[in-house]
Design goal:
By secondary structure, the protein is an alpha/beta fold. The chain contains 11 helices and 12 strands. The strands form 2 sheets. It has a 10-stranded mixed β-sheet with strand order 2-1-3-12-11-4-5-10-8-9, sandwiched between helices. A two-stranded antiparallel sheet has the order 6-7.
Length: about 350
């Protein structure tokens, strides 16, 4: 029997509510699909930083390299400087483990009414593939003379041929499995060096995939199209910062950021990939049992898909759809179901399907 080592990192805030219910579903699905899970929980996050001065220790990073995947909640607390979580945990993990793909599905779930008038499930179904290691978020800059009249600050983006090529190949291969369309979302008409280079390398890669329709769209047009005509998208290929912004907009047109899953993926599996919902730690509602767990549960399904357990991943996704189709929603969607009740609805569908 196959077995997978999964590092569990609840993180902060509602991470301590949504990740445990996701783990319960993972345990059940593993038993039913006959694979093993070796789970180990770690305390990394802003809470660990408050007590120990680091979000994650160097020993912790080395330890997590031994795992097949990381199942992560969220990071950040109000009393901790909000510039630190990304720098000291999220970006560190994504970079050190070469998780250069940020995979974020944008798909309207059954039973959910999108904020976009008259849009249905067939209209909102695409994936934002965000380059995850380079671009605008490499934190390559500094502040000089901040208190002087001549003070200045810089942040310099980094785009390499290798980095662009590998994310482009991933996107085109993904499109081949979907509806065979890649849209490069860029802003090369104003960022005439970095993103012009980005465009040119992607165009070279596109020539290797004649079966995939390729087009380029500026981010201002793309953001409008998310709202006005989301059905034109299949696979969106974009940069680190643009992808960060657009994927949250994607969560909004799905009805709630609480629905949004993601994977920080090392496709070659040389290092563990990390799977997390796209929302934050939401400390204002932590401990109230009202957080939407769907994004975390869906992220668990994406994790299983990455590990090769496709049938198990489909079972979890079908359980999610069954719960939303029945109108079982948490407060963010105008419902009154608790975090646990949502997870139980997903789990009940899984167990019932297996018993048929």
């Amino acid at each position: 029997m196959k077995s997978y080592k999964i590092a569990i990192v609840p993180g902060d805030g509602i991470g301590h509510e949504i990740i445990p219910v996701g783990v319960n579903i993972l345990k059940e699905i593993a038993e039913r699909h006959q694979f093993g899970l070796e789970l180990e929980t770690f305390p990394w996050g802003a809470g660990h930083y408050k007590e120990n001065g680091v979000f994650i220790t160097e020993e912790g990073i080395e330890q997590m390299k031994q795992f097949d995947a990381i199942y992560f909640g969220a990071v950040g607390l109000p009393e901790v400087d909000d510039t630190l979580p990304a720098m000291m945990y999220t970006f560190k993990i994504r970079t050190m483990f070469q998780q250069y793909v940020n995979y974020r599905p944008v798909k309207l779930l059954p039973g959910v009414t999108s904020p976009l008038r008259n849009r249905t499930e067939k209209d909102i179904d695409f994936v934002v593939v965000r380059e995850n290691n380079e671009g605008e978020f490499v934190q390559n800059g500094k502040i000089l003379y901040p208190d002087k009249s001549f003070g200045l600050a810089t942040d310099t983006s980094v785009f390499t041929r290798q980095g662009i090529e590998r994310i482009a190949h991933y996107s085109f291969k993904l499109a081949q499995k979907r509806r065979k369309k890649v849209t490069n979302v860029t802003k090369s008409n104003t960022l005439i060096n970095s993103l012009a280079y980005w465009d040119s390398v992607i165009e070279e890669v596109a020539e290797n995939y004649p079966d995939v329709t390729y087009n380029k769209m500026y981010v201002d047009n793309a953001s409008a199209s998310f709202v006005l005509k989301p059905d034109v998208f299949d696979v969106i290929l974009t940069t680190n910062m643009i992808g960060d912004i657009l994927s949250d907009l994607g969560g909004a047109i799905m009805g709630s950021l609480g629905f949004g899953p993601s994977g920080n993926i090392n496709p070659e599996k040389e290092f563990p990939s990390m799977f997390e919902p796209i929302h934050g730690s939401a400390p204002d509602i932590a401990g109230m049992n009202i957080a939407n767990p769907i994004g975390a549960i869906w992220s668990a399904a994406i994790m299983l898909e990455h590990l090769g357990e496709s049938e198990a991943a489909i079972s979890i996704y079908e359980g999610i759809c069954a719960s939303t189709r029945k109108g079982i929603f948490t407060k963010d969607m105008g419902g009154n179901a608790s975090t646990k009740q949502i997870a139980d609805a997903v789990l009940n569908h899984i167990t019932q399907q297996q018993e048929v």
